[in-house]
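Limitations
The structure tokens in this dataset are predictions for the assembled complex, not deposited experimental models. Users should treat interface geometry with appropriate caution, especially where small molecules or nucleic acid strands are included. An illustrative entry is reproduced here so readers can see what is and is not provided.
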Amino acid sequence: MDNISKHITENEVIDNFDNKLSTLNLGPTHPATHGIFQNILKMDGERIYSAEQTCGYIHRAFEKISERRPYNQIRPLTDRLNYCSSPINNIGWDMTVEKLIGAEIPKRVDYLRVIIMELARIADHLICNSVIAVDTGALTGFTYVFQERERIYEIFEEICGARLTTNIGRIGGFERDFNETAHKKLKDFLKGFPKRFKDFETLLCRNRIFMDRIINVGPINADRALNYGFTGPNLRAAGIDYDVRAMNPYSSYQDFDFKIPIGKSGDTFDRFMVRQEEIKQSLNIINQAVNNLPEGPYHADLPEFYLPPKEDVYTKMEALIYHFKIIMGETNVPKGEIYFSVEGANGELGFYLISDGGRTPFRLHFRRPCFIYYQAFSEMIKGALLSDAIVTMSSMNVIAGELDA
Amino acid sequence: MDALILIKIIIILIIFAITLFIAMYSTYAERKVAAVMQDRIGPNRAGPWGILQPLADGGKMFFKEDFIPALANKKLFIIAPGIAMFTALMTSAIIPWGGTITMFGYTFDLQVADVDIGILYILGVVSMGVYGIMIGGWASNNKYSLFGAVRSSAQMISYELAMGLSILAVVMTSGSLSLKDIVEAQDGGKWNVLYQPLAFLIFIVCAFAECNRAPFDLAECESELIGGYHTEYGSMKLGFFLFAEYINMFISSAVISVLFFGGYNFPFMHELGLSPNALTITGTLVFFAKIFFFIFFFMWVRWTLPRFRYDQLMHLGWKSLIPLAILNLMITGGFLLLKDLF
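Predicted assembly:
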């Protein structure tokens, strides 16, 4: 008994001996959680008897901060939600504000947005799927697709100057149009990606060990998934063909022809395969958008929200006033209460916005898909092995930044 | 007699040095091989092409803080890496590294000890290796370490059976338990892999499991158990565990070469017309070439395949490999009987 701490009283020690279940803290910092969240597992050997998840380790009160921020300055906050696909969050927020103020958006902006959002979706799905592979022990596929993600980030870099937390776009359109290099990089990516993606696919998809590791692991049926409020790839893997892009098209998604892949059993394998197929569909959408890219302005005519060109600011009075008001965040928006959602990379990303007519939102709520998935986690891993829990967690693509907002 | 002892001591020292050197450079090779497979560059800072990387790593390990968790069992915690290292190094004693060399009027084998029950010795020492992992995992007083240790010991026990059974088939064809005799029996290109392909497959799978290498690296899988049995270890104690793994890989490659690929034999070795000493040295070089190929094979597999789940691993061991090994044993026995009859 000499190696037992003085802080543990005798009773506790005896209790632990009597108790056949052991408690295992999976997290808050554990290499497999890919973020900071904790799971308290009651284990019977390697089998999980029950699980209890906690969250809030990186809660940054974005919703509350938003109540003090002018609309243009909330976009950088959305970067930090699902940081694997921040452009979708940015553009989703811009479109929410556009819906509130009733702005007319040029067709070109819609198409450029579709290109960027689908690129972000590919990047996000690549990370998620390759991380499933990493958690089963296959590191090599991860490095293959990480190079593709790098290429996508280079395109983002050309468009907005940033890579991870992009803060891409502005209310009404874009800060600047795609330049020559961006077009070239996009073209190269579209040309080279399918072949290199195939490498990743052949490495894993029919790999017996990999299939055994993920088939029937962490399943959830369609009923339970709907009851929890699942959306996105995780719901589609369970067999429900709900996709915001098709059900409630935004940003001219109705112009594009794409399929919505669905799974059957809602297990990890289905989630993996749905994401693989969505990557191909996204590529298809980008190709269509690039080929049919309309000419026109790259931003809407929204002087109260969109910064005027610098030369106008120095020479024209109206431009100077708008510039001042936008920078200082003194633009009032109409009164209203709206909900707008986009198909985020891992589910329906909703923005519930109440405006009392001031310069800042009265209340803003992010509908974060990760927060919903994570609630189902303990149910999904009950009775599974420890290894299954890890793979299930990564296949649901729970991003700590989005979970805790 | 004195000269013989001196020669043996010299051989022991040389083998010891070579084993450590190869284990050290296996870490470098692993990183380079991984880099090639993953389209990266790999270590290239320490020395030209990064060849001083293992030394830098070793130096770093020595200078790290030697940390022992407060609730760990200190004695066992310190002993465990030593056991792992010790058992890993012990196996090299009976590997026949080459034929005989005649020098200064003495004739001696390139082997430390030609034990009659060489294979049993290998199985015995290798299974002792699990004590290092088991004790280390238990003494850390960490649940993740304990999980790793339990997984590892269960895995070792399950796979040792299939391994032993697959070796039995080789023993039956060679008619001896001594590694030297097994190598000699494969003289002239009659490699066991041609006669015992199934035993070879079973053995190599088990060798992966015994070395705790991917796809059987459940004992230390970083995605689930953080570091497995060595989660709480740091500094050179961690270095010993990792080093022991590489030594095990080297020895396993050597044993695979000895049992199935003719050890230091190579086809047409007697037709070359070399002097006995030159032939022995060539044989030893060929033996090392085979070993390096299998070390590369170990790495190749590691960077390609995902790892098994704990229960799948047990299923594979008990429900596939052991029945297959027994079947192989029966077929081999049947053939030997037929050979005797006719």
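Some entries come with short summary sentences. For this one: Residues 2-37 of chain B form the longest helix (36 residues).
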